[in-house]
Amino acid sequence: MNTSSFDYHLPKELIAQRPASPRDSSRLMVIKEEIEHKRFRELLEYLEGGDVLVLNDTKVIPARLVGFKPTGGRVKALLIRETDGNLWECVLQGKKVRPDLTIHFNSSSARVVERRAEGRWLVEFRTPPRKLMERVGEMPLPPYIKREPVDPRQYQTVYATHHGSIAAPTAGLHFTEKLLQKIREMGVTITTITLHVGPGTFTPVTTDETNEHRMHPEEILITEKTADTINDRSGRLISVGTTTLRALETASRNGRLRAYNGCSDLFIHPPHTFKSQADALITNFHLPRSTLIMMVSAFAGIKRVLHAYQTAIEHKYRFYSFGDAMLITRE
Fold it and tell me: What is the tens place of the pLDDT at every residue in 199-252?
């Protein structure tokens, strides 16, 4: 399918620059036979006892570092993935970056080891990178968020647990502890998977045809307990976010979820036959021609999704990471 099929025009003023406060006061578009306009806290009206709600409990790391070359030139580093101890795969921005270049970060330094595919570099840090990030790292906000600084807590879900993402699983940003407790009290089971969000999720699709695009692998962990909870459910399976849905698809066979600990480069786009048996998806409104809008279109139907997006624009919903959400059922 041509990537232009997933295009739409979004007025810039609808790109959310800050999250709703409180979190669950954001808007929720419910897409069933008709479109309904709600607040996110009203999600309770659409859940039933026996349902299973699946969250991605990854935690965003302060993966953006600013360093300097010996000549004084600035180098921006985005730490993507640990390969071995102090060796990390990074995206580096700066002039004349090359192997053996030394980059100084505050009171520490790093050496560029080699260039890798897709504009990445292998970098060896003198200080353990996680400690360096804790000390001088910044939250890697998307480029369309122009308002800085942002309180780092605003770009984490309230249930974020496992460090490793360079972007938030944004559908989860709408939940508060109070709302999650109300959901549990309804008899809905809440369980978690972990998918560490990397460049694979948000790298733009630049190919003309969707099937020519290749995803960067991302790390996934699904425990036996989570798999059993989902497989033994009596109600519906509701995925919170596209990252959760991709994890479920990666680890499912014939409608059954398996425990999983590994990487996935699964790219979900129309046409796609779903294996996970997910019944509904909670997700934000995504960028045109992105892998995320393609996944939502595969799940719910491209005409249905684009109609929802146009309706959202007409009703001035807020878009992207800090924007509003939709609840949509499988086509």
Answer: 878 788 999 999 999 998 899 999 999 999 999 999 999 999 999 999 999 999
Cα-only R_g, the chain: 20
Amino acid identity of residue 218, one-letter, is E
DSSP 3-state of 286: coil
Q: What is the DSSP letter of 171?
A: G
Task: Write down the residue that tokens 């398996």 correspond to.
Answer: 258
Structure tokens at 301: 């139907």
Q: If 0-12 CB within 10 Å is exposed, 13-18 middle and 19+ buried, where does residue 199 land?
A: buried
How many angstroms separate the CA atoms of 92 and 122, rounded?
10
Question: Measuring CA to CA, which residue among 212, 202, 177, 195 is closest to residue 264?
Answer: 195
What is the rounded distance in angstroms from the CA atom of residue 26 to the CA atom of residue 316?
A: 12
Contact in structure between 50 and 244 (CB atoms under 8 Å): no
Q: Residue 126 phi/psi, 5° resolution?
A: -75, -40
> What pLDDT sits at residue 149?
65
What is the total residue count of the chain? 331
Assess whether 108 and 196 both reside in one domain: no
Residues 24 and 154 in one domain: yes
CA distance to 135, 286, 317, per residue, from 29 (Å) = 40, 14, 9
**Domain extent for 212:** 3-60+148-329
Q: Which residue has the tokens 């996935």?
A: 264
Residue 248 Cα distances to 30, 194, 315, angstroms: 22, 10, 32
Q: How many CB atoms lie within 10 A of CB 207?
A: 13
The structure's pTM equals: 0.94
